[in-house]
Design brief:
With about 450 residues, the chain is an alpha/beta fold. The protein folds into four domains: about 80 residues, 2-Layer Sandwich (GMP Synthetase, Chain A, domain 3); about 180 residues, P-loop containing nucleotide triphosphate hydrolases (Rossmann fold), CATH 3.40.50.300; about 70 residues, Helicase, Ruva Protein, domain 3 (Orthogonal Bundle), CATH 1.10.8.60; about 90 residues, Chromosomal Replication Initiator Protein Dnaa, Chain: A, CATH 1.10.1750. The chain contains 20 helices and ten strands. The longest helix is centred in the N-terminal third of the chain and has 21 residues. The structure holds adenosine-5'-diphosphate and magnesium ion. The site of magnesium ion has 5 residues, from α6.
Length: about 450
Amino acid sequence: MHEDLWQAVLGEIELTVSRGSFVTWFKNTHLVRHKDNVLVIGVPNVFIKQQLERKYNDLIVELLAKNGMHPERVEYKIHAGLVQAKKTDDEPMILGRQQTDQSARPAVNQPNTTVLTHSYRQGLNERYTFDTFVVGSGNELAYAACGAIAQNPGTKYNPLFLYGGVGIGKTHLIQAVGNAVLANNPSARIVYASTEQFVQEFVDALRFKKTTDFAKHYRSADVLIVDDMQFIAGKEKMQEEFFHTFNALHQANKQIIISSDKPPSEIPTLEERLRSRFAWGMQIDMQNPDFETRCAIIQTKAHMHDAVLPTPVVEYLANLVQSNIRELEGALNQLLAFCEMRGLAPDLQIATNLLGGTRSRPKHISAKQIIERTAKYFQVPMEDILGPKRDKDIVVPRQIAMYILRSELHLSFPKIARELGRKDHTTAIHSVEKIEKESSFDSTIKAAITEIKERLYA
Ligand code: ADP
Ligand code: MG
């Protein structure tokens, strides 16, 4: 089997599971061998191996079959080549850390590439450049601001705060700034971090008593790029730390670039002082690309694969996925891989057959569905979660259900308590806070939450 086919399978997995799960469990996998009806997938560590075996094997087998592969057995092997050169010396190597670190990497999960072909320069993915970014409605202003900053970092639009929906090109653009600054000045210190990574590193720094190193690292940046700031919601200590980092850099005229899925005014529990700092510079809203822009993006991406798509296929894809460009790319890659494997030229018929299934997500989930899903994930009876039992294997799922009710449905604490059959709403407050805290360093809890959510929306 061709690596491409595995990449096509990954492309479909990406559309099935959440972004977090994809990055955590699938991103660094690749095809090792397909021989004698045994298909071997290389994975970076034992943790991921177990997850794939236990949780995702059925999905993988199903998607392999969908792509015309029917191996008798799928094996997952730890493949040393995949973990090389990812750590710097001062990073503690602990399992939870490593996993979060991976999930915190920038979006390199395009199905047509593997980790081996990427090189990171201080967290930057060199594929994200201005050249490969299609400018059109919805992103023109963001593009122009980023371009100006890349020319003269730290002088205007400081901080730049870019916000917009998932897969709309935020990470691509802010990384393009970093790459362009580096191209102009190879000794520039560009620090790119996702907010999750920032948080995790801070937690580790506290744990390993390295907070000075942490502060020094972030405050020595010429350009600090922090992705997905919405994840700082509810994390008071982090907000404080970030506030000081921000001030130190801003005073020294260093450029700060922030992305988020919502404007500062809508990030819950964002401290007022941070909110006002973010308003100092420029805030830009990235909108969904219009039809023409989506067509242009598809054509550009197809071109990068040396493929030519007939106009009806381009238009079909542009109509199929309207807002999330990552999904758009996923659909395109799936189509290209499918055709390449079979030596076919892409046409409308193939595209419709392959991608015709609905990929829309139900918007409304109920409290009951959340509790059910959580119970199912932990394989405990729903009655137990709703009942009086205090065993740990019931209490944790109950707390996680409360957490998800809060984070997904924004229910009030008394309502959460009622949904779980509790009388006292302080239990709900305590549970939500506990899980919030634990999920930032406990990778098992984090993975559970990600997966439950992903199934909810699947
Ligand atoms: P976000 O960070 O907003 O969720 P990303 O920056 O990760 O989105 O973009 C998702 C994918 O879509 C990336 O592969 C990116 O290269 C691609 N993409 C988004 N916008 C554009 C664009 N205007 N031109 C080319 N590629 C784009
Ligand atoms: Mg992003």
